[in-house]
Amino acid sequence: MTLHARGPFEVKLNPQKPDNPPAESAALGRMSIDKQFHGDLDATSKGEMLAAGTEVKGSAGYVAMERVSGTLHGRSGSFVLQHNATMTRGVPYLNIIVVPDSGTGELAGLTGTMNIIIADGGKHSYEFDYTLADKPGG
Description:
Elements: E1 3-16, H1 21-25, E2 29-37, E3 41-53, E4 60-72, E5 75-88, E6 91-98, E7 110-118, E8 124-132
Antiparallel strand pairs: 1-2, 1-8, 2-3, 3-4, 4-5, 5-6, 6-7, 7-8
């Protein structure tokens, strides 16, 4: 059975310097992620993002990984989210999934997809559709 979680979150993205010459020559943006989720998911997350812009206004892309730790509808544990997103001349595509078998504690066996909503004024919220197996692989 698919369950649904939602709520607001705050995010801080901090630019990071490239850590080697090839990374610097790639001209990619690298940022640390620091989030606080509220609502059905009461958690924090830490992660990293790589982003690339283009010469065409409104076109860009990013990938990110973040480890989320806290409670989901009262169940405690952690899991990893994997982001893949593009913007094509202002049209967004966003894919955020739970990394298979990354759930720990009471969140072992978690699978799902998350959507991020950014409202006017920059307020962020999430919609998270997930399933929770009784045990990993089960």
